[in-house]
Design brief:
With 214 residues, this protein is mostly helical. The protein has 2 domains: 147 residues, Ferritin (Up-down Bundle); 27 residues, no CATH class. Helices cover 64% and strands 0% of the residues. α2 packs antiparallel against α3, α2 packs across α4 and α2 runs antiparallel to α5. The protein binds fe (ii) ion (2 copies). The site of one fe (ii) ion has 6 residues, from α2, α3 and α6. One fe (ii) ion (FE2) binds next to α2, α3 and α6.
Length: 214
């Protein structure tokens, strides 16, 4: 077939199937499966929005102001993710599932309230880590077959990794013991004579290496 008649055929098909919107005949993936997978990601995001908003309203304690702001920002970003995924589901001819009775069953992560500030941060961190793992799976599934959905999920994944990193820092600030062994402490490795929690980065940086007074 000549190049021009092939183009002609593609144009004909496009004209005949205009009701299918962005989905063209060369879309190789099973659309129902794709919509199911994206609906699970959507449910995950919606549960995250609610959990972060709940945490935003309930956060109390001496560290709460900074943490509250972080919860609020994350809630807004999870809502943006949900909107992008819903939009993509619609583009693919599917129905974005927003029925509250259904989304908890579809979500990868759970709605956990937490009873203290540290608990809340921990629950959020667990949820982010679950999202990171499952989104990586989803990205692999899309591969070269649906680059638009893959790119969207890659951008969302990058944000979830940022969230997890911020939560790890917050958890450490609220509960310093959580940093032991798993993460270099910013004041222990930057401040030469740091004896542990309570020192502020830079405060002791001009002093000599630690020598115990005899
Ligand atoms: Fe998200
Ligand atoms: Fe997140």
């Amino acid at each position: 077939m000549s190049h021009s008649s092939m183009i002609q055929q593609i144009r004909e098909r496009a004209r005949q199937q205009i009701t299918q919107g962005a989905v063209t005949q060369d879309y190789k993936l099973d659309r129902k499966r794709v919509v199911d997978i994206l609906n699970e990601a959507l449910a995950t995001e919606l549960v995250c929005v609610l959990r972060y908003r709940f945490h935003y309203f309930m956060a109390t304690g001496i560290h709460s102001q900074a943490v509250k702001e972080e919860f609020k920002e994350h809630a807004m970003e999870e809502q943006e993710h949900a909107d992008r995924i819903a939009e993509r589901i619609k583009q693919l001819g599917g129905k974005p599932e927003m029925n509250p009775a259904i989304i908890t069953g579809k979500s990868h992560s759970e709605y956990k309230e937490g009873t203290s500030l540290a608990d809340m941060i921990r629950e959020d961190l667990i949820a982010e880590r679950i999202a990171i793992e499952t989104y990586r799976e989803i990205i692999r599934f899309f591969g070269e077959q649906d680059p638009t959905s893959r790119r969207m999920m890659e951008e969302i994944l990058a944000k979830e990794e940022e969230h997890a990193d911020e939560l790890t820092d917050l958890l450490f600030a609220v509960e310093p013991a959580t940093g032991k062994g798993s993460r270099p402490l910013y004041f222990a490795d930057e401040v030469q004579n740091a004896s542990g929690a309570g020192n502020i980065a830079g405060q002791n940086s001009s002093t000599k290496p630690a020598t115990k007074p005899s």
